[in-house]
Amino acid sequence: MLLTQILQQKSVKVPLEGKDKESVITELVELLDSNGVLLDKDAALDAVFTREQTRSTGIGSGIAIPHGKCKAVKELVMALGIASEGVDFSSVDGKPVTIVILLVSPVDQTGPHIQALARISRLMLDEQFRESLEKATSSDELYELLSTKENE
C-alpha cells in the first residue's frame, strides 16, 4: 500500500494553525470534510477523539497518528499536516509533535487501516525523511516529499 493512494494532495496542510492536540485534530478533520471525503464530520471527530482518550497517538520522534473508525467514511482517508511549533500530544517519549498524520476508516475495514499504520511507521523510521517533512514550507512540497519517498 502506498500512502499517496489514500492521501489526496488537497488533504495536506503546511503549516497547521492549531496550537494544541484538539485544535490540530479538528483542523485536519475539517480539511478532509472540506475536500468532500467525509459523510459526517462530527462522527469522524468523535471517533478520533474517542480513540485519543484511550491512549495518546503521539508515537514519539515528533510524530502523532490520530485515527478513528466510524461510519463517516466509505473508505480509508488520510490528512497530513506539519505544525511549525511542537504540539503536546502526551507522546510516549514526552516530546512535542510536529508531524500529524490523521486516518479515518470505516468500522468494517480493518485491513487497510492496519496497512496504513504499518506503512507510516516504516516510513517514519527514516530520520532524514522525517526531518525533510518537518522542514517543508508548503503543502505541495510536503506531498511531493512523501510521493518521492514512496516511489524510491
Task: Summarize this entry quickly.
This protein is an alpha/beta fold and 152 residues long. It is 41% helix and 25% strand.
Structure, explained:
The chain is of the alpha/beta class and 152 residues long. It has a single domain, classed as Mannitol-specific EII, Chain A. The protein contains five helices and six strands; from the N terminus they run E-H-H-E-E-E-E-E-H-H-H. Helix 1 packs antiparallel against helix 2. The longest helix has 15 residues.
Compile the SSE list and pairings.
Blueprint: E1 7-16, H1 21-34, H2 41-54, E2 58-60, E3 63-64, E4 67-69, E5 77-87, E6 97-105, H3 110-124, H4 127-134, H5 139-150
Parallel strand pairs: 1-5, 3-6, 4-6
Antiparallel strand pairs: 2-3, 5-6
Helix pairs in contact: 1-2
End-to-end Cα distance: 14 Å
The CATH topology assignment is Mannitol-specific EII, Chain A
- Spans of 5+ residues with little confidence (pLDDT < 50)? none
The CATH architecture is 3-Layer(aba) Sandwich
* Secondary-structure element order, N to C: EHHEEEEEHHH
Q: Provide the number of structural domains.
A: 1
CATH homologous superfamily identity:
Mannitol-specific EII, Chain A
Backbone CA Rg: 14 Å
Helix content: 40-55%
Structural class: alpha/beta
Mean pLDDT: 95
Strand content: 25-35%
- In the CATH hierarchy, what is the class? Alpha Beta
Quickly count the helices.
5
How many DSSP E strands?
Answer: 6
